[in-house]
Amino acid sequence: MSDEVPSGPAPAPVPLSGLTEIRIHGVGGTPPESLLGTLTPEHVAGDRVAGFYRTGDTRGRHREAYSWGGLTSRSRTRALWLLLLPSMLANMGGWMARRRLTSGPEEESRAPTTVMFRWAARVAALALTVSTLLMVCLLALDVVAYQCGGDAACAGRVPWDPAILGLADRPGRRLVVGAVGVLLVIAVFAYLSYRSRIAYESVPPPIRVTPQATAEVAGQVRSVGMAEAAPSRRCAAALDGGLRHPDFWNGQLWHRHLSRLHLAVCLAGLAAVLAACVREVAAQAGAEPSRTAAGIVAGLACVVIALVVALLGEDEADRRWSTGLYGAGAAVLLGAAVVAWTLPAAPTDPGMLPGMRGIVNVGWILTFALWVPLAGQQIAAWLTRRPGQWWRPATWWRRWTVERKERPATFPWGAPFVLNAVALMLANAVILSVITLVARSLGQITWGFAPGDVPADDGAGPPGTGVTVYLPPAVGATASALTLGLLAAVLLFAGGIGVGALVVRSPGRLAAFTARLRRDYGLPATPEPAPTPEPRSESAWWFSAFRHPPRKATRWRGADGAADRDGASTPPSDRPTAWVSKVALMRYLARTTTRAWILFVGIVVVGMVWMLVVEYTVWILERPFPTVALTLGVTIAVAVPPLLVALLALTFRDASKRRVLGTLFDVGTFFPRSFHPFAPPAYAERAVPELVRRIWRLHDNEGRVVLTAHSQGSVVAAAALVQRSERRDGEPRVGFLSVGSPLAKLYRWAFPALFSDGLLAGLDGDAGIGPVHWRNLYYVTDYIGGPVSGPGSAVPAAVDEVLHDPPTYWYVFGQPLPPVLTHTGYWVDAHLWTRVDAMCDELVAPLPAPAPAPAAEVDGALLSEDPDTVAR
């Protein structure tokens, strides 16, 4: 077959042969104008949401930028992702599993997680859906439809008038109207799930087409080209090799399957709540047929939920089962609505909806029961990883103090369980706050179930309305406990970080740090007297940041001296400068990033202990929650929804604020939605395939690629490079320069099963896409990026290179001190571009023939390629 392109679309407007440097930004969505240093970059591939831009060539190479920030921040609807934060945490928790093997052939060929873990993690994520549904039903069916809709004084406060619709004395029909409100919330999640799947998961990854298969692929114009992969039915977490598998970013069918299962639980759960309440109302009204029918419908709804829980253990998307259960959930909901609508008229007694108290209790018990498999699996896995006499304190101490330092750092305490617990606490804190706020707006809250209970009035509510809204005491107590618990955990963590910062900047610590910092710059630890420069010369204008600046202007300045009133030079102070103190502070903050596990574990521990105390006091001892704590907690809780609405409005209007919000989601939305379908979409489902396509297209046009990737962009680049190719001949040769990369500091730490040490070690050598030459640059002050090699790691130490931050300690008198660049200053560091130039030169220059090496070793000589081909 000829390689000539047939007639059709116009050829590419830019040359694709030769060497191309592709710059990939990190979190926050740096625009291509800033990446390329030009006001008029040329759009050459992709679209305005995520695309490739090019500027003028330099040093014999093309310069492109891959701007993917629009996937997380460009659209105004991205502001609504804040509502999906708990779902995102639940989905993240499923990817935070640990595994026994971190490198080697077995690690490369096996799935990153076990069957038992995947089922337990999906069931724990389902607990979040069940809990959210339960609280929404409490608000819509009980507070609004039953209590307020049945009270003439409160009826005018609801969106619909029960008297006009003839529902004032028909509690069953009011419950149907309330169920419609819950159904609208479910519909919103279903729509968001569908729309995001079309925009993200529907982008299939590219595959290589062999010459034998070319005839079977329509539309291919070259003998060996690209095609779109067929949709994969398997869950990404169950694929052998994890990120290496070609179908890892091909999750459209699985997401649709998981979405229908969660929607089936939502519909069946709503049907169960509606039917159970109708059953109790019918019993009070003496309507036995309705009571019997409601009981049957509730039982069928529970069967649907049980089947969904069982089906979550499967790793293959089964359209028949998911669609069938989705339809079954809709059918039982319709049955519950019919039973409720035909319920005869009955008076509405003051108090909560009959049956809702038991439903809330059963719902919370079910929520915690869905956590049990994940908790058990995590404990069993922990014991499996620690064989022997693990129960001895000496063994624990050795593993914490010695063995922990001999292996790459990871999240230390049951990360999947912790993240799911934090997600559930955040969701309940917000929803219970909304319930309290709505109840306050409708009337005066009474913490009880009926008038016979002893109320604990919070004194809120419109005075003189005569409207009383009953809420379970546990609602107020739980809202207060979660709000105060979360606030206490955050304040304690921030206080601990603040105390550590004060210690680091103490005089004794700063003196020792100054000596170390001077050695980093190649200076003696103890400053030596500097020669006095010539007056009125350029050298007289330069000062060292290790020295205190002059106190008074004089005719000329010594390089390190200070001046007195008469203009005479005085000996410099030995006290560390403010510049040294700032560098010490930024290095300390960079070391505290991975201590975020203390915050997450602290939230779970404080929240769970506080919840146990509250529930024991309210339910077991039957005592009211302390009035002061209840009032304070409720006051803070009711302020949460307005603040959330204000934040949403601010980010909806301002694109820069959306980029800041997108930074929060850049890590959490990287992974496929394999555990919770209502999480924000994974931008990598589109970004990784697009980058792979670009690399292969440049390669097929006799081009080579150097990726300069910053921060989260390096994670996208690594995910593209490790994917296995369908063809092993003529692979692209790629240079990879990661800058401020969180690959090890955050991703190997938090997601060790996916970003394993073996996967990172394979990046520098024969990676999935082909030979890769990798260098990792970082600052010690970087709170996101860091080294990828270290004790116990299989990554070669030669991959890492530390850059000075600040790049220099010299500054011109009257100008600002050398800035600490930390994580965001790499692009303005001249030392970075010298490394980029060196990488490009090395990729073009011919390499010596590779020496034989064991398969497990990483050998940069695998990058060799015919220089004549590159020269073209």
TrEMBL record:
The chain crosses the membrane at residues 119-141, 175-194, 261-281, 293-312, 324-343, 363-383, 417-439, 481-504, 596-621, 627-650. Residues 553-575 are annotated as: Disordered. The keyword Nucleotide-binding does not apply. The keyword ATP-binding does not apply. Keywords: Membrane, Transmembrane, Transmembrane helix. InterPro entries: AB_hydrolase_fold (IPR029058). This is Putative integral membrane protein. It comes from Beutenbergia cavernae (strain ATCC BAA-8 / DSM 12333 / CCUG 43141 / JCM 11478 / NBRC 16432 / NCIMB 13614 / HKI 0122).
